[in-house]
Amino acid sequence: MAWGETPLALVVKTPPESTLTQPEFLQWAYAHLGKLQRLSAPELRDELPRSAIGKLLKRELREPYWQQQGKHIA
Fold first, then answer.
1. Which of 11, 17, 54, 71 is the most buried (most CB within 10 A)?
2. CATH of the domain spanning 9-69, picked from 3.40.630.30, 3.30.160.150, 3.20.20.60, 3.30.300.30
3. What is the pTM of this model?
4. What digits encode the pLDDT tens for the residues 19-62?
């Protein structure tokens, strides 16, 4: 069986000096998500890429993961 995209959480810590760790986040997330919504891994980031008007740039978020697969998403 071949899977498509794998759920990944991109987490921005607020405030940035928060001491949240990946295992702590996963513990919290699994308490709030169903079994089919389990995450492959969380990534803790300082910020997410945004346009000049504040719109989230999803293409820039996806690009590094698709490059690893040798594919390109439209």
1. 11
2. 3.30.300.30
3. 0.68
4. 989 999 999 999 999 888 888 889 998 899 999 999 999 999 88
